[in-house]
Amino acid sequence: MKKFIIILIAIIIVIVGIFILVDQLQYKSVALTLKGTGYNVEIYDSVSSKKIFDTGTNSSLRLKAGNYYYKPTGPIVDNSQTSFVVTSTDIAITVDPDYSANHLADLAKNETKAINSILQTAYPKVISKYTFKNLNLYKKGEWGAGYLVQIVDPRQDPDIYRFVVHKVNDKWIVAAPPQISISKNDYPDIPLDVLYSVNDSL
Amino acid sequence: MNNKRLIIIGSVVALFIIIGLVLLGIYKPTEKDKVTDRDTGETVSLIPDSTGASSDLSGIPVVGLSDLTQTIRSKSSPGLYTNYIGTAIRAFAKSRLDNKFTTITIRPQGTEIEGLVIKSSIRLGQSDTTLPITITRSGNNKSMVLRIVDKDNKYGGDYVYIAQPISSSKLYSIDYTHDYKSVSDPIIITITASTSYREAALNYIRDLGFSPADFKIIFTKYENPFK
After folding, report:
1. B:57-86 residues touching chain A, CB 8 A cutoff
2. Least CB-CB distance to B226: which of A19, A177, A198?
3. Contacts 24+ apart (CB under 8 A), A77-85
4. Nearest CB to A156; choose among B21, B196, B226
5. Which residues of B touch A184 (CB under 8 A)?
6. DSSP code of B155?
7. CA A177 – CA A127 distance, rounded (Å)
8. Disulfide-capable partner of B193 in A35, A36, B30, B197 (CB 3.0 to 4.6 Å)?
9. What Rg value do the Cα atoms of chain A yield, rounded?
10. A116 closest CA partner among A144, A141, A142, A140
């Protein structure tokens, strides 16, 4: 009888052990690499929206298979959330957030003069017939886009020209010259969100 | 002897339990000839065109079209476009996904119809991946443009498909060319308009729910002064 009880306990221990093992096998390693500084990354469970992790440095954690999202937080970064799924393998996530809209708007104030100047230099014969409007910066301020509105009789609707500029080696260059609409097929190197934004109505 | 028998029986029982648990832990059903769709609950045959879930054109099963038709009808809107939707989604699966998913589901969950715009999402196979989709019809019911949003650019960026011509007005004319055999080529829109109405023509396209960035737009009888 005593041996029977011992065997029964052993079986229960094995079963519990298997349960723990199967449960642990569902946890996978998630390696977080943070590009840039001055922000934290928060990880949330997509189902419960409960925050489960918060870090300001490169980190590694173990997460059970499921759906999650991360969100950068900080004074100058865009805190849009990005979804990710943990399945049967370890994963690596690189976080490289864009600047927030407010911070980009602040930066744009300082860049308007420089960008206007390169347009004046690039199109000296025609630029006087247009009014420079609404410079927007994107990403980390290295992409810019704006509008040149044709000066016409007030009774007419003007043509609106859209352009995209890119800062390379600390100098602005024209990435897409002024045109009424800018196709993603003609400029595959320009980020899509920049193209969609500049092609909106003024 | 009794103890030995107990040990043997106990070991065998434990072995079966272990095998059972391991199988429960690691076994995942695989898609074979049929699959139960996780959004609609339909049993879908994975043999192309052998299921009511797919339309008359060849390609992988597009699940949820009948649900979508019923939803459109319940909103008193004509359901004429479901075949075009199936064709457009198959074209997307072929050109962007290389047909690696066995089904595409138009998810009934969260489908919204507002005026001429249908907003929903599609699921790739039975995976966790879903993509938003917008289907916009023109007011005269002669045009439909479908857009699958690929925000993270995992499948080549947003996918746009025009099933019928976009209409025109007296102030400008809009035409397009689209080669169904090469759906990855840009859709070319030709606009004929005077100075005052070029932006109006673009606004018309925007009002349909599209971004001009998705098209190659050519203005006739016009020269860009900046080029």
Report:
1. none
2. A177
3. A77/A38, A77/A39, A77/A103, A81/A44, A83/A46, A85/B128
4. B196
5. 157, 213-214
6. T
7. 12
8. B197
9. 27
10. A144
Q: Using an 8 Å Cβ cutoff, are A77 and A46 in contact?
A: no
Residue B18 forms contact with A (CB below 8 Å): yes
Q: At what angle do helices B82-96 and B65-74 cross, to 10 degrees?
A: 140
Q: How many CB pairs under 8 A join A and B?
A: 107
Test A180 with B200 for CB contact under 8 angstroms. Answer: no
Contact B87, B163 (CB under 8 A): yes
The beta-carbon neighbor of B25 closest among A22, A126, A201 is: A22
Which of B197, B198, B212 comes nearest A199 by C-beta?
Answer: B212
Give backbone dihedrals phi and psi of B204, rounded to 5 degrees, phi first: -60, -45
Is the Cβ pair B195, A10 closer than 8 Å?
A: no
Give B6-33 as a DSSP string. Answer: HHHHHHHHHHHHHHHHHHHHH------S
Pair of tokens at residue B68: 């979508």
Q: What's the pLDDT band for B181 if we cut at 50, 70, 90?
A: very low
Residues in chain A with pLDDT values less than 50: none
Cβ contact B153–A199 (<8 Å):
no
pLDDT tens per residue, range A109-134: 999 999 999 999 999 999 999 999 99
pLDDT per residue over B11-60, tens digit each? 777 777 777 766 665 554 444 578 889 898 888 877 654 444 444 346 78
Mean pLDDT to the nearest integer, B85-114 = 87
β partners of residue B56: none
User: Helices (DSSP H) in chain A: which residue ranges?
Assistant: 2-25, 101-122, 192-198
pTM: 0.66
Structure tokens at B127: 């995976």
CB contact under 8 A, A192 and B213: yes
Q: What is the pLDDT of residues A53-79, one digit of tens each?
A: 999 999 999 999 888 999 999 999 999
Four-point Cα dihedral B119, B116, B203, A139, nearest 10: 0
What are the chain B neighbours of A156 within 8 Å (beta carbons)? 195-196
